[in-house]
Fold this sequence. Notes:
The complex is a heterodimer.
Chain A: E1 2-7, H1 15-26, E2 30-34, H2 43-46, E3 52-64, H3 74-78, E4 84-87, E5 90-93, H4 103-107, E6 113-127, E7 133-139, H5 146-163, E8 168-172, H6 179-185, E9 190-195, H7 199-214, E10 218-224, H8 230-242, E11 247-251, H9 256-262, H10 267-270, H11 272-290
Parallel strand pairs in A: 1-8, 1-9, 2-7, 2-8, 9-10, 10-11
Antiparallel strand pairs in A: 3-6, 4-5, 6-7
Chain B: E1 2-7, H1 14-25, E2 31-35, E3 50-62, H2 74-78, E4 84-87, E5 90-93, H3 103-107, E6 115-128, E7 131-138, H4 146-159, E8 165-172, H5 176-182, E9 187-192, H6 196-211, E10 216-223, H7 229-236, E11 241-246, H8 249-256, H9 266-287
Helix pairs in contact in B: 1-9, 4-5
Amino acid sequence: MKEIVVISGKGGTGKTSLTAAFAVLGGQDPVVADCDVDAADMHLLLEPDFAHEESFFSGELAVIDQAKCSDCGLCEDVCRYGAVDLSEGRYMVDEIGCEGCGYCARVCPDHAITNIEQHVGQWYRSAIRTKTTMIHARLKIGADNSGKLVAQVKKVAREVAKSENKNWILVDGPPGVGCPVISSLSGASLAVLVTEPTVAGLHDLRRVQQLVKAFGIKSSCVINKADLNPDVRGNLRRFLAEEKIPVLAEIPYNEQFTSAMTNGKTIVEWDAGLEQQVRGCWEKVSQLADDR
Amino acid sequence: MKVAIASGKGGTGKTTLSTNLAMYMAEAEPVVLADLDVEEPNSGLFVTGELCHQELKYKMVPHWEKESCSLSGNCQAVCNFNAILKIGKRIMVFPELCHGCYACAELCPTASLPMQPKQMGALRHLRTGDLDFIESRLMVREEQAVPLIRQTIDYVEETFSAATVKILDSPPGTSCPVVEATRRADLVILVTEPTPFGLHDLKLAVETVRQLGKDFIVVLNRHGIGDDQVERYCDTQNILLAARIPNSRRIAEACAAGRLLYRDTPGVAAAVDAIAGLIRYRNGRRGS
Lengths: 292, 288
């Protein structure tokens, strides 16, 4: 099974527009997974039916039973996250600050603290309009453990791909280099790095490539908004050449990306020129993921 | 006064607004700009200065001391993050999984797991004119951004007076790094764009800041492209749309080159002036 993971380091380079376009070009072949769980957008273009929904629990949260609490304050003393506050004479746990380490519950002399499983968010298995299955999720606002939810989305996507005899998983990843990105990359056959010739785009690409390389995953790159700055583009091309990262496409700055989205379409369904460029790109992705 | 610049969606212009606003305000008063997007810090590409301080940033993780260890296995039992494993006569620590709660260290019967610092990133403090710029950078492969964000805000709070305007360039999304970056802010500015993705992620960001009980306003970037759904949403929700930055290829090109825009681009100048006025007004009211 091949897993293609689309990431970028920097946000707003066109990851989701491109991944959704790949999904349209791939049709029934891939299982699609949206791993940008805290700002998932791919469902806006692919019309999932949300047919199957499950709650996802991970990690713990301390809860103080006020009836048993004798206000000794030991929980506040041991908490390294400042998540226990004295409020109107009672000790209370700040749900957002609590990391669920369980230390307070272990030392509470009154046995007044229990740990409950934290609801991290929902995940969905949907049929989408490209006649395949999409696994997607919605992280609970401000939740910890987004990396765990990403891992769950990927796990279900793999199970679905296996049971439906599909050879591909197409993953829309989150921005950054932290835990959800690391979780998205685990087990990837090919990373597609979507970048732009801007100082921030190049800076962030360097960091995310460092991460991809550390995991021994093969990279490829799409330069979006390619004509925005020739100097930075030169630096970008040099970096890609040094790292031996193949360039799948250079797509010029094109406001049709926005028009397509506003009309609920992917770029390949909206603009003939973009269709041609992205199709060529998708063919190269398929080849690269195959030969390894 | 701490002002966090955040967004649900990435690439909407958080750093563009943070850097231009901070430089503009610093022409009239001391201002602090802190880049809290520690996974991908970009403010430093637009703002430079003279380095006045730098420090490595550490998180505390347990270190096994074999000689005194009685192999009780208590450490493994108390760790909720699977960061400690007892295998035969060895204790293994997985620092990348450790959340630094100290339970294993402090509950160890023989004190054989003292907490020791492990580098997770670095902080730099630069100064140019009246602007103090703080940037923290997470080491690649380090999973947890939250401890570094927390320590960076601690540094900002310890170094500058409460009344100084502090602009916090925050990470994208709605998960724990954003919460950490915005939870101590007095005002949150949500930057979005007039597209379906922009609107969808703005709604998530609004839910987040409302849950945190934060005062917030919205800035619309790339105004003129896309549709009017964001404006209608703000209108029906009674959310103050404090400024609009026009969509323009010229602005995109300037940002691509790492250039600031507040001096020579009227659309950006008007926006930062409006937001600066609002921040000063609120800061004045806080002080009185």
